[in-house]
Amino acid sequence: MRKYLIIVLLFFSYPTIAQDFIYGKLTDEDRMFNNKQIDSNANTVYLNEFGNTRFSYDSETGSMKLVYEYHARIKIFNKEGFNAANIVIPTYKSGTGDNQQEVISGIKASTFNYQNGKFVETEMTTKSIFNEEKSKYLSLTKFTLPNITKNSIIEYQYTIETPYLFNFRSWIFQSDLPKVNSTYIAYIPANYKYNISLRGFYKLTENKAELSRECLRVVGKEMDCSKLTFTMKDMPAFIEEDYMTSPTNYKSAIYFELEEVHYLNGSSQKYTKSWKDIDYELTSNKDFGGQMKKKDVFKNILPSVIGNAATDLDKAKAIFEYIKKQIRWNNYYGKYSETSVKEVIDKRSGNVADINFALISALSAAELDAEAVILSTRENGTVNKLFPIMSEFNYVVAKVNIDDKSYLLDASEPLAPFGLLPLRCINDQGRVIHLKKPSYWIDLKASQKSSTVHNLTGVMSEDGKINGKITSYSSGFDALNLRKSIKKYSSVDEYVEKLDERLSNIKIKNFKITNLDTVENSITEEYEVEFSIGTEEQSVSYFNPFFINPIRKNPFKLNERNYPVDLGAASDERISINITLPENYMVKEKPSDISMALPNQGGKYLVRTEVSDNNLTINQQLQFNKAIYTSEEYHYLKEFYNRIIQAQKSEVVLSKAN
Q1: What is the pLDDT confidence band of residue 658, given thresholds at 50, 70 and 90?
Q2: Are 156 and 145 in contact (CB under 8 A)?
Q3: pLDDT by residue (tens digit) across 356-384?
Q4: Can you spell out the DSSP letters for 329-397?
Q5: First-to-last CA distance in the chain?
Q6: 285 contacts 276 by C-beta, under 8 angstroms
Q7: pTM for this model (two decimals)
Q8: Of these four, 50, 55, 228, 473, which has the most CB atoms within 10 Å of its CB?
């Protein structure tokens, strides 16, 4: 979860001298800097990084703009760090034909190599700069610095002018590279009020507010500014790891949100609004509240959809299945409809909002209590709950209240059962929007745990071959992910064929998969298999019994992780193996019984091995009782996986009587 620190500003009068470093003026300290001074594993390090943003008034157009200047100096230690010389700078545009767009200029870039007792500069030419129109909203400026070798120091700078005053340039102190120094200066006119927040784990080394006099001239009037300086030193690289939401939730950064503007004519305009304001705007918006009210579209459709459904829950499930089958998701997110509910039903395609507003309207038409929930997806980051920022929300789902229980629904995911949101939506909290009641926050949690059971029953023959049957049952996210994996192939046969190719030591002889499309039930897989065990000598055989969904690598490798481990849902996996051995075989060695647990009942791993007559039985259980583990619990998880990996290296050793 993001940590927010609201910056409190105290003003003092100082000379307004920018704290940028001089381009191209390298020092012996830069030349001698070694990665061991900050991170011995680093291939590349920011020696210095500086940025500033200020307002500028365009007298010709009578409009205000923001001018952002960026300057970086980076040292590359080895060839693994050469990619740092490939620079990509995004700029944005409205995409609405009003010519509102950001403009990049002043690009300058050089590579410095130390030769014969001095730095030799190689300047990048303008021919090395390329522009890519990524979408109607996004352009990318790309260039690669020249003459990169080991221990090269690269330096580049540029300026971006933007008309988007609401989004005052944020500053990300932490990146995938360590930074020795990172400084950002914001010049904000006295008549502009921004909410400023610091997010992330690390604290500011410097946080200074000064008065910058006459920093801006508007229609002949000189205006004072707040000069805000933010610095962090010796920042470690941010390393992404498995089981995390958006990195923006955790990277140390400064964000600005425009709250209010006082104009020179005495009027003012508020930009940061209350949830009461947002509720009214959303419910009044034709592409949000307007689409939630389209009950008439389903007046003639509902009787055949609901059929003989006896309860409200049965009605809701029938409507949910109808919308999932009727409208195909076009793979676009959104919190606003791009078309009308009627049109999306006719066209049978739409974005997330189109589909879920149709679902809400259909549920309401059936006299069910349906609401909308706006949220931010996992990759988009969590939202600021201190004050509403609509730009942080990028998704909408449905919520239906039946008796004393609520269900969150996303009909854009056809393979999801009723009440289970896709993993992309499981992200802290969403805001419930009702047409007539005040909005409120709701937790976005998986409604059921992920669960898989694998059973293998087999018979071993004298020649060391084992023939048996593996039966697996999956539910929750395990079932959803399995169904999606199978649906990627043109047929179930092709999926099993590819599975057989991946299982190098196991041959699939026959199979049966049931409930693939019956998503309310567990999906069942049945495989008739054959595999052989290894032989060391004529009378001794061995095999590793941990071959069903084994854990070979630890997903947790960091020495320290300053952000939580987010699994998405609690989980339970059980594996049972029962093999009947030939009568002249006996078990010489077997895996030790194991029982280990995470602190505070966070989870457990169990192994039980039994030998009875000629039957060998090995049972495993891996259980995680929480969806989210704190950074303080990280080392327990890491060690937990290390011990599981070690345990699963154990083998069964069989001896054959002469």
Answers
A1: low
A2: yes
A3: 999 999 999 999 999 999 999 999 999 98
A4: E-S--BSS-SS-HHHHHHHTEE-HHHHHHHHHHHHHHTT-EEEEEEE--GGG-PPPSSS--GGG--EEE
A5: 64
A6: no
A7: 0.87
A8: 228
